[in-house]
Amino acid sequence: MLIQTGASGFMHPHSSEITPEAAYLQRREFLQWSAASGVALASGAAWAENSAFAGLKPVSAVASTVSGARATDKLTPFADASSYNNFYEFGLGKEDPARNAQAMPVRPWTVRVEGLVNKPQTLDLDALQKLSGQEERIYRLRCVEGWSMVIPWIGYSLSKLLAQVEPQGSAKYVEFVTLADSQSMPGLRRAVLSWPYTEGLRLDEAMHPLTLLTFGMYGHELPKQNGAPVRVMVPWKYGFKSPKSIVAIRLVESEPRTAWNKAARNEYGFYSNVNPEVPHPRWSQATERRIGEGGLLAPKRKTQLFNGYEEQVARLYAGMDLRKNF
Ligand SMILES: Nc1nc2c(c(=O)[nH]1)N[C@H]1C(S)=C(S)[C@@H](COP(=O)(O)O)O[C@H]1N2
Ligand SMILES: [Mo]
């Protein structure tokens, strides 16, 4: 299958504008970028042959038409997005997940959708993936630590799954429960967070079309270190609100506690919307470093309100004091 990824930040120079040497370098850079991002070339070069994705199956998707779902910033190289990770179940270091997550069993896998719903269901991965056509969405991911990436994710709006189970009128929040497997997750031996890692959204946030039930990235299934086989991406919130390797989705009446909120209530609120004007108690959130962009010497970027998705999501918080509801 082919993925149409139009605007991804790479500038296509016109051949008349460049010297042969520059053309060669540009082409080489483009080939590397194409290979790394899973984008099929018009010339027919197949990323399936590229060893960067060794072992990861290609996943079909069409470009998303959801408003705001296709950031035009330059894509973060796949190599960075799959080697600089936070997944504390596999250790605290950025390189620990890529090294340690490979032992996590991701097949068979089921997700229970339960709680205040008329039609609770337990779906295996096949059933989950077939529930809707999948789209590619290019989202910025802003970690609370002050770095960001731009990643072409693959999945469909979580709202499609939620509609299927018919939430009851009393359901106001959604709680996500992730895998806690002491056999394969060495990080569980340390109580840095309370396991399993859980997260939560208000029901209207979970139903927002940008909230993505995510199965893949860069044209392939998710690497284990990025939350295989299924995670949720909420692009206007800090990265920790995007739980990896989900096993249950629970509709509940009151605001659920979350792993980071339990660990440090005054530092990580329930909402955790990206907001440059609300500093973390120990550091500013006004700027960010884009991973893959020249390291520590690269100029920092200004962090945008709601991570740049203000037009799409600001209405969810109309009338709320975002400093109180941080
Ligand atoms: N289960 C689980 N999900 C998790 C985390 C985690 O430690 N465990 N870390 C979060 C944090 S802090 C971030 S920034 C993102 C990182 O996602 P990525 O590694 O795919 O970039 O995953 C989030 N989801
Ligand atoms: Mo994060």
Shape call: globular
What small ligands are held by the chains? the ligand Nc1nc2c(c(=O)[nH]1)N[C@H]1C(S)=C(S)[C@@H](COP(=O)(O)O)O[C@H]1N2, molybdenum atom
Could you tell me how far the N terminus lies from the C terminus, measured between alpha carbons in angstroms?
A: 42 Å
**CATH superfamily, please?**
Oxidoreductase, molybdopterin-binding domain
Write down the CATH class: Alpha Beta
Question: What's the multimeric state?
Answer: single chain
Helix content: 10-25%
Based on secondary structure, the structural category is alpha+beta
CATH fold assignment: Sulfite Oxidase, Chain A, domain 2
The major sheet is characterized as: 8 strands, mixed
* Computed Rg: 20 Å
Architecture, CATH level 2? Answer: Alpha-Beta Complex
Provide an overview of this structure.
The chain contains eight helices and 13 strands. It has helices spanning 20-37, 78-81, 96-100, 125-130, 158-165, 203-207, 259-263, 310-313, and strands spanning 62-63, 110-115, 121-124, 135-142, 147-157, 173-178, 198-202, 212-217, 220-221, 231-233, 246-252, 287-290, 301-302. The protein has one domain: Sulfite Oxidase, Chain A, domain 2 (Alpha-Beta Complex). Strands 1, 4, 5, 8, 9, 10, 12 and 13 form an eight-stranded mixed sheet that branches. A hairpin with a 2-residue loop joins strand 8 and strand 9. It is an alpha+beta fold and 326 residues long. Helix content is 17%, strand content 20%. Bound molecules: ligand MTE and molybdenum atom.
